Each structure stands twice: as structure tokens, then as C-alpha cells.
């Protein structure tokens, strides 16, 4: 990867982290408590004690946490909000209204791809192997 591209991606990730932080501070205490309710969302970048107990799920949480950090994103703003099926999880950052579907290898913790939605008369899912691309291009 070219040096300029790396620099651009790092700056982009920092801007996403900044907007997440700023928006989180703007939320009311009640809204924050609703979002952070563990029955609705499971935090990725917080205490690993909050993660599910199964080995496969924990492995996938580690993978998500690692990939978010590798992309330069602060994993404490990201949550698993729905397990669509065994190999597809919906992750989101409610502070910047971003949602991404993560697909995993069957019976494995390795991430296969990211799916993000775009609007074109109806919601269309696009596939990428870049987490940062999925975050940038996803539309609420």
C-alpha cells in the first residue's frame, strides 16, 4: 500500500473515532443507557467478561476487536447488535449510525467479508474485504 494511502486511511479512521466520541457526548444519559443495554447490544471493545461464553463466539469477538483496531477504529464504540445467523453478525456504531454485516468462515472465527448497505431506490448490499471501506460507504 502506498504511503499516501496509508496516511489517508489513518486520518479517516481518526475522523470516524472523533465523530463517534463527539456524538456520544451529545447523547442524553437515558439514550446512552438504552444503547448500552446488554440485552440489545454486546460491546466489542469493552471488558471481555461481557462477551458470550461459547468458544466460537469469543473467537469471533477477538477477531472483530482485532480488525477494528487494525483499521485504526476505536472498538469501544462498536457493538454486535444482532446475530443474523451462525455465520453473519450485524455490528454497529450507534453514535455515527453505521451498520455492517460481518460474515465469518463456517465454524471458525476468521472474517470472510463485510457487507454494507447503500440506498438506490431500495437498500442494496455491497461486499468488501475492507472494514474501513464498509464503514465509510455504509448508509443508514
Automatic annotation (TrEMBL):
It comes from the Bacteria. This is Uncharacterized protein. It comes from Limosilactobacillus agrestis.
Amino acid at each position: 500500500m502506498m504511503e499516501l494511502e496509508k496516511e489517508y486511511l489513518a486520518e479517516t479512521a481518526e475522523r470516524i473515532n472523533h465523530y463517534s466520541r463527539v456524538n456520544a457526548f451529545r447523547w442524553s444519559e437515558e439514550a446512552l443507557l438504552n444503547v448500552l443495554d446488554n440485552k440489545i447490544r454486546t460491546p466489542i471493545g469493552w471488558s471481555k467478561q461481557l462477551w458470550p461464553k461459547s468458544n466460537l463466539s469469543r473467537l469471533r469477538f477477538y477477531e472483530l476487536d482485532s480488525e477494528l483496531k487494525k483499521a485504526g477504529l476505536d472498538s469501544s464504540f462498536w457493538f454486535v447488535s444482532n446475530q443474523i445467523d451462525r455465520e453473519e453478525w450485524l455490528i454497529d456504531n450507534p453514535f455515527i449510525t453505521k451498520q455492517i454485516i460481518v460474515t465469518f468462515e463456517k465454524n471458525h472465527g476468521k472474517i470472510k467479508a463485510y457487507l454494507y448497505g447503500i440506498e438506490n431506490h431500495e437498500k442494496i448490499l455491497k461486499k468488501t474485504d475492507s472494514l474501513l471501506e464498509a464503514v465509510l460507504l455504509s448508509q443508514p
